[in-house]
Structure formats: C-alpha cells, structure tokens
Specification:
- The complex is a heterodimer.
- Chain A is 49% helix and 14% strand.
- By secondary structure, chain A is α/β, with parallel strands linked by helices.
- Chain A folds into two domains: 40-151 and 317-354, D-Maltodextrin-Binding Protein, domain 2 (3-Layer(aba) Sandwich); 152-315 and 377-434, D-Maltodextrin-Binding Protein, domain 2 (3-Layer(aba) Sandwich), CATH 3.40.190.
- In chain A, the strands form three sheets. In chain A, strands 7, 8, 9, 10, 11 and 13 form a six-stranded mixed beta sheet that branches. Chain A has a five-stranded mixed beta sheet with strand order 2-1-3-12-6. Chain A has a two-stranded antiparallel ribbon with strand order 4-5.
- In chain A, α3 links the parallel β1 (40-47) and β2 (70-77).
- The radius of gyration of chain A is 25 Å and the shape is globular.
- By secondary structure, chain B is an all-alpha fold.
- Chain B has two domains: 2-72, no CATH class; 82-310, MetI-like (MetI-like fold, Orthogonal Bundle).
- In chain B, 68% of the residues lie in helices and 2% in strands.
- Chain B has helices at 7-12, 38-58, 74-81, 83-115, 121-133, 136-146, 153-160, 175-200, 204-212, 217-228, 230-245, 249-254, 266-275, 279-310; strands at residues 61-63, 68-70.
- Chain B has a two-stranded antiparallel sheet with strand order 1-2.
- In chain B, β1 (61-63) and β2 form a beta hairpin.
- In chain B, α5 crosses α8 (175-200) and α8 (175-200) runs antiparallel to α11 (230-245).
- Classes of the chains: A alpha/beta, B mainly alpha.
- The A-B interface holds A 81-82, 84-85, 88-89, 91-92, 110, 112, 115-116, 196, 199, 255-256, 258-260, 401-402, 405-406, 408-409, 412, 414-415, 423, 426, 430-431, 433-434, 436 and B 62, 64-67, 69, 78, 81, 83-84, 148-150, 167, 169-172, 256-262, 272-278, 281.
C-alpha cells in the first residue's frame, strides 16, 4: 500500500516545482523584455478621481505618441486619506511607481521628501514655475515636483440669477455676506449650502478664509509653523470657525445639511435651490457636467472677511508629479524626459484641453482657454488682479487631520467655535510633532 | 528527543514495536516527536508573537515607517489627551454592552421560539441567520441609504403612517444607537444559533419530569432552559462583547465616527490616527485597546465560568 500511494505526493511536488519554475521564468522574461525593446517603460501612479484619470490618460497618450523612446503606463490609486496611506506605504517599502502624482504643500512635506524623493532642481523647467507653486514642492532648498494640472480657488460658488432677482451684489465683507443671506432667506431660498454627508466639504469656511487671515496678520504661516500662533488665540484665524457657527445659528443652512453630499450641494447652487455654496472651483467640472446651464449661472466670489480693501481669494496650488528615489539609472532619465515634456508647451496644451481647467496653471506661458465656466473665469480674475494667497497648507507643513470632523461639529451646533478652534490646535500639534518640527514639544 | 531512542528499530521496517518499549509513564499520549510542533511554532512566532512584541515597541516611538524616534510613553500621554478618545471610550462601552445585552436577550427568545414546534421552523432559522452571512460593509452602506433622513426608506415609511422620522445617523444623540441597532440585527443570528445548540442539548428527561410535575411553559423556561443554557449564555456574552468592544467596520461605513466625533469608538479613533500617518500613536492606541478588552473580558470570563462550575 505504501508503495502505491507514495508516488502521488512526489508527482505533486514535481508539479509545484514546475509551477514555481514557470512563474519565475515569466517574471524574469517580463523584466528583460522591457529592457531589450530599446525604449524604457515608466509606471505612472495617479489618483483615481474622474478628472485626474482623464488628464492622465490624455497626457500619457499624447506623450507616448511623441516616440521619445519612453512609454508611460498609468496606474491609479484611491484618493483621500486612503490614498495617503497607499503612497506612504509604497514609498516606505520601496515599491513606489516610477513616477507618481500627489498633493503639493503639507501632504508633500509629510512624505519626508529629502529621504524618499529625487530632487529635480537642476531641470530646465523649474525656472518656469510660479514662485508659490515652486515653494509648495520644495523641501530643504531642493525642488521635487512638476505641476499636475491647474490650480483651484476656494471661495463661494453663487447662483447669479438669484443674486440678480434679489438685487444683491457680490459681498466684500462678512457683514455684507450675512446681510445678503438674510435677504435670500426672506425670499425662501437656502442662503448657505452645506453638505456634511461628505465631511471634507465642511472645511471651506475655515480653509478658504486664509487669504483674510494672511491679509490681517502677515507672516501668520511662519509663526504658525513655528508653533507661536494658534487658531484659538489668533483673532483673524478664529474668524473662520466663528463664521461657521454664525451661519448655523442664523439658520442659513439647507435643511438637509447633515446628510447632503457634494453632488446635492452643487445641484442646489446650480438650480437656484440654494444661493451660496462655499466650495473649491475643482467641483465646477462636475457641476457643469450635471447642470450645463450652471456654466453661465454660477459665479465665484472670494470668502469675505472684515476688510473690503484686502478682499481676495484663497488659492489651492496644483498637485505635483514626483520621482521616488527608487527610480534610478535609465528609468530616472526617462522620468526626467517625461516631466520635461509635461511642463513644456505640449503638456500645457493637453492640460488645457483634456479636462476643463479649474483655475490658472503654475507654469509661465500656459494660459487658460477663453471659454471656461463663469466661476473659473471669476476666480482667474482674482489671480490676475493679484488678490489671492495660497491656502495655509501650501505655506506650512502643519495641517491637522481632524479638521473636517471639527468643522462638522461647529457647523452642526455640536461644538462652539472657540472649542473647535482649540481642539484643532491640539490636532495640529500631533502633526507637527510627527514631522519633528521645532517648537512643538 | 525521542527520535534518538526509537527509530533504530522502527525504521528497519516490519518488526513491530514490542509493547514494553512504549514508555507510557514518561510521555503519556505523546505519539509525535517535539519537532513536529516546529512548523506551527514558527508560524505562530512569526505571525503573532513577533508582531505583538514589535508593536509594543513601536507604541513607544514616533514612527514614520522609514525611521523612528524613541519617545517613551509620550504616545500614551497624547492618546489619552485625545479629545475624541473620552467620547470613544464611553461610546465603546455603551456599544459593547448594548449590543451584547440585546443579542443575549433576543438570541435566547428567538432560540426558544425556533426550538418549539412552529410552522416553517427551518425556514425561519435560516432567515434569522442570514444577516450574519452578509458582508458588514454591504450591510452598513445599505442601512446608510435606508436611514437617510431625506428620502430614505425608513423615514418615508414612518412618514406614511404620520410619524416624524429622526435623523438616524445625522443626529448626534441617535447616531451610535442606530448603528448599534443594525449591529444587533446583523449579529443576533449567531447568538440564536449558539442558543439553539444549547437548548437542543438539554436532555428531554428534564422537560418530561417537569410536565409530570405540572410545570407551565414559563416554569420550563425559567427553571430548565435558562439555567441549563448557561454555557451558551457565557459564549454569547463573551463573543458579542469582544466583538462589540472592538467593533469598527459597521460604524466606519455608516457614520465614519460622525457627525463630528459623536459616534467614535476606540477602534475608529485608532484608525483615524493611522490614516493621518501617526503610526506610533495609532500603535499605542491598539495597545490601549488590547489592554481595555483584556481588562474587561478576562475577569468577566473568569466570573462567568466560575458561576458555571458552581451549578
């Protein structure tokens, strides 16, 4: 009996061995085929949101058609904090794609660029970058990123027909904004649209107020990074939290604010069901896709502060394209070729046409098309007039992860503005310590 | 060890081992040499012991995945200062106790019902167990849609009969309870099955003797089923309490700990720290969770088992 049963496991072992051999072979041959083809293959990791994928596909297709001996293939990852973890983990384990797209500013700083990314300071295109963007992808005096797509504005999307019908004008102070809102509420329209079903949307009244903070307190960002000013104790900075509380207490929010999602909010402001929606211009694409008439009907104004003279918008800079240190040799050269093309006129042309731009670009000579939606044109107007500041997250590596929960609480009346700001200061402290910044222990 | 003693004869083959050579006094029942344990030990060491020890270590550091800095107990200090943690701790206890208690009561009642002679018993048994088989995330997303205060099926139904439906998941006072409700719905099937097994294993003689003595249905329940299903109760309490204390997936998919921090539990607080890249801090949180669960479950287990032994 023993004699008959024994061969079986042996045959199994042979099979397993063969399978192992086969798989080893195929992995090896895959690696060598890309080398022997003459060209280099680059793996490019981008976010999986609709506009990023559209832009990525258009860029890659146009670039591959130029036949520079480099073929780029796309790979997508989730967005939000899940995406942050994918990027951090892949970098830490040396498993990152050859080139990848990721936020600039504080999230970029959290990647510890000096240890994990390849500096690109010597590249020709670096000199064409706008200063704000360049500093948002720089660490320790080196530039690490090329711009990905357009910048965006943070402020208020408003329904122009509602404003016209009620004879209102764009507010330049918070008092005017509240007065407008009172008139809008009297007309039976939701004055301020809020959508806490998607928590990140609750942060706009605080984050997009930063131009006003910077105008009232120049040097806030440096002081903030050094841990010397706090939201709870800085008079200009706490305003954003207070505004959120005021809007809730005045009953200016839409009745379903706690469960509504971004799409609902965009629909409300597009159709005039709601009049004003504190939001980013990046959402205009989605709004126009769902409600084509909103391209003309919905405009943009900067979140008003105390002083009409310094009124201006907060700008979110484009994300960056980075090269990890694990990309070396011929791959690194190929990556530089790709970035050189993306930042050049051809790359600009693709970025202008492939997806509707959300705001001005970060490279010199790359202009917005003439037919952008009204909201984007309004925002570009602020940029042209020089009435913008980069959002705090591009000036300081310090950004707390729990702001969206805190603003939901303040905006829902669960927590007071003062409490919320103090809680955010605690939250931020953890981030600063994690980054090893001085002055936070 | 034993390999050095026995094999010489046994490997030769056909000659049967003389019975006298079995050293039953020294290693009773140990048929296999110690190195047979080795594969299992290696797996256990690499996959359980090493990560556990390593995580205790990293909870004492500020960890950036690529490097770390030793900071002593600072993570624990910070974790306990975390504003959401106090809410989280209280919510965890409420959630664990509430779901566990409800599963015990409902599970027992359902089990009594489903062991009696009712029509369609097998069908009903599968109906009760069905939610256990469904993915928790799927259940969470479905109920999130059903519980939507505007246009959700539940509130529409309530409205049809003239009742105002609350904001199940958006009202800070109800959010955690709504999630607990769904957790009970999803988990009661398992409790029921454990109770059914417990009740079925009670010898019929007790019921027959009780009938002779003229016991009512309530007497049967109170004096036979309840005490003799005690092992089942212990299992259900322990399992559902551990499950409730470390519950995460349902809460995360339904409310994300919200609105704000109002339905956060320890596990979701830890997850958010991890998401934010505070790896050392979230590891410290896991150590805290481990200690809390152990501190509650071990004494409870000991107490329940002692009671059982007394019976």
């Amino acid at each position: 009996m023993n004699g008959r049963t024994r061969p079986r496991p042996r045959r199994l072992a042979v099979l397993v061995g063969a399978a192992l051999l086969l798989s080893a072979c195929s992995a090896g041959s895959l690696g060598s085929s890309s080398d022997s083809g003459g060209g280099e293959t680059l793996d490019f990791l981008i976010g999986n949101d609709e506009s990023a994928v559209a832009l990525g596909e258009a860029l890659v297709e146009a670039f591959n058609a130029t036949n520079q001996g480099v073929t780029v293939t796309l790979e997508t990852r989730p967005g939000g904090s899940e995406g942050d973890n994918v990027v951090k983990t892949r970098l830490a384990t040396g498993d990152m794609a050859d080139v990848f797209q990721y936020n600039s500013g504080s999230l970029f700083q959290a990647l510890t660029p000096q240890q994990q990314l390849t500096p690109l300071t010597g590249e020709g295109w670096v000199s064409t970058l706008q200063d704000d963007f360049r500093s948002s992808v720089s660490a320790g005096g080196e530039v690490y990123g090329a711009p990905w797509g357009a910048s965006l504005g943070g402020g208020v999307l408003y329904n122009k027909p509602v404003y016209e019908r009620l004879g209102l004008s764009v507010p330049t102070t918070w008092a005017e904004f509240m007065a407008n809102s009172a008139a809008i509420k009297a007309a039976g329209i939701d004055p301020v649209v809020q959508t806490y079903g998607e928590t990140w949307t609750s942060q706009l009244l605080v984050l997009a107020d930063f131009h006003n903070v910077a105008a009232a307190e120049p040097g806030f960002a440096e002081q903030y990074t050094a841990g010397r000013v706090k939201y709870a104790t800085s008079a200009p900075a706490i305003k954003g939290f207070q505004h959120l509380q005021e809007v809730h207490e005045a009953g200016y929010q839409n009745v379903d604010f706690a469960s509504a999602e971004l799409e609902d909010g965009l629909r409300k402001v597009a159709t005039g069901e709601g009049a004003q929606y504190p939001m980013l211009t990046s959402t205009v694409i989605q709004m126009v896709a769902n409600n084509p008439e909103s391209a003309q009907d919905v405009g943009f104004f900067a979140l008003p502060g105390d002083d009409a003279a310094t009124n201006g918008a907060t700008q979110w800079l484009p994300a960056g394209i980075y090269v990890p240190q694990t990309t070396t040799g011929a791959k690194l050269e190929a990556a530089k070729t790709f970035l050189n093309w993306v930042t050049g006129p051809d790359g600009c042309e693709v970025a202008r046409t492939a997806v509707p731009p959300t705001g001005p670009f970060a490279t010199a000579g790359c202009e917005l098309p003439a037919d952008v939606p009204a909201a984007v044109a309004d925002f570009a107007g602020y940029v042209d007039d020089g009435r913008t500041s980069p959002a705090l997250e591009f000036l300081s590596p310090v950004k707390g992860p729990a702001l969206e929960q805190i603003t939901v609480e303040v905006g829902s009346g669960i927590r007071s503005a003062q409490d919320g700001a103090a809680l955010y200061d605690d939250d931020v402290r953890k981030q600063a310590q994690q980054l090893g910044l001085p002055g936070w222990d | 060890m034993t390999t050095t003693f026995e094999p010489a004869t046994s490997r030769e083959g056909p000659a049967p081992r003389p019975p006298g050579r079995i050293r039953s006094g020294v290693r009773a029942g140990a048929r296999y040499p110690y190195w047979f344990y080795l594969p299992a030990a290696v797996v256990y060491l690499v996959l359980f012991i090493v990560p556990t020890v390593v995580s205790f270590f990293f909870s004492l550091t500020r960890w950036r995945l690529i490097d770390w800095e030793f900071i002593g107990f600072e993570n624990f200090v910070m974790f306990f200062r975390e504003a959401a943690l106090v809410t989280g701790l209280v919510n965890t206890l409420i959630y664990g106790v509430l779901t566990s208690a409800a599963k015990v009561v409902l599970g027992l009642l359902l089990a009594v019902l489903l062991t009696s002679n009712i029509v369609g018993r097998d069908f009903l048994r599968s109906m009760v167990f069905f939610p256990v088989l469904v993915s928790t995330v799927g259940v969470g997303l479905t109920f999130e849609a059903l519980m939507d205060p505007f246009g959700g099926v539940i509130n529409n139904a309530l409205e049809a009969v003239g009742l105002p439906g609350p904001g199940w998941l958006t009202n800070p006072s109800y959010a955690l309870l709504s999630v607990a409700l769904v957790d009970i719905w999803k988990g009661v099937g398992l409790a029921t099955v454990i109770y059914i097994a417990g009740i079925v294993s009670i010898p019929r003689e007790y019921f027959e003797a009780a009938r002779v003595d003229g016991a009512s249905a309530w007497d049967n329940f109170r004096y036979i089923i309840l005490p003799l299903a005690r092992p089942a109760t212990t299992t259900v309490i322990i399992l559902s309490l551990i499950g409730g204390l470390r519950s995460f997936d349902l809460i995360w998919t339904m409310t994300g700990g919200g609105p704000g921090f109002t339905s956060d539990v320890i596990a979701s607080v830890i997850y958010k720290q991890y998401q934010a890249g505070f790896y050392g801090l979230s590891t410290a949180g896991n150590v805290v969770l481990f200690v809390v669960v152990t501190a509650i479950v071990v004494p409870l287990f000991w107490w329940l088992n002692r009671k059982e032994a007394e019976l």
